[in-house]
Amino acid sequence: MIFTIFIAFISIIGLLVLHEFGHFIIAKKFGVRVDEFGIGYPPRLYGKKIGETLYSLNLLPFGAFVRIPGEIEKIEDERSFSSQSLWKRALIVAGGVLSFWIMAAVIFSIVFAFGTQVAVSDEEANLKDAKVQVLAINPGSPAKEAGLEPGDIIKQLTINPEKKSGISDGAGIQQLTINKVKEVQELTGEYKGQEMILTIQRGKDIFDVKLTPRVSPPKGEGPMGVTLARTALKSYSWYEAPWRGIRATVSMTGAIVQGYSQAINKMLSKQPSGVELVGPVGVFQLLTQASRLGVSNFLQFIGMLAIYMAIFNILPIPAVDGGKLLFLGIEAVRRKPVSEKTEQSITTFCFMLLLVLMVLVTIKDIIRIF
Asked: Are residues 252 and 358 in the same domain?
């Protein structure tokens, strides 16, 4: 567990470091002076100056930063950020956002090259490592009460048809190896109200759980109260994997944006949006769950997280990259920049709002988990 949390923490920090590297590399490309590239936040633990840039390791391990002169206030220096043309400044700011999408595409490409579990139909044959997995669990369902978790693999299902009548000598016990979703659906539908045993694989552990399918489940839920999928291992050639990675990144970005749009429309029409904000604690929990599904699923979650961070960072909110791009857009329209005082005041105010929101969401996550 501790090792999993450590890996999750390093993964998130890695995303943030590479995000700042996006700003750094484009600034360097344009000849802009970079005073410091830091991992973590001060106080500084270690620093080494290479050329004109100080590379530092800092005490507070919550991200990374790039210190570029002229980024916050105007400086009369031809190599400062503020002295660059509008399009160069926009690209330096956008570099951090683009780095998230590039990281996602690279991660998905690696996953596709080495193989990943993908959803397949019950009818497909000649599959490698086909299995039935739990994708989601309904609150208060028999599956939830039995302790099932997303990612669990249902390997076997054992039923004793005679046990319900109270007469059983064990001769009627049926034990079925599960390979298809419809096998679980048919059996739980046929033996509603009767206790059955599920052999579950969770990571490297294999164990049995007892579960009684509901006779009258709520509308939209099955007798067990789970969403199941049949998955199999598929891999692609080295030249096809990158295209698959790019396509997956574009497709997932579109799906996330569409999901946000639908949630906003529902909120405006005063309908339940179904969207739940998750803070750092919630992200760690999700990463921990993803790690139980194997390296491939863990990497896919990291790739998805990079896309979420890219979309959030490009939003026109002061205090994130999208806010800086918004001010640059206003400057392009007005043909003169927003005053430093106004920009800093708005940015500080929005940063404080985001900080308060993060604290509230983190408290909610802790209460939900514990």
From this structure: yes
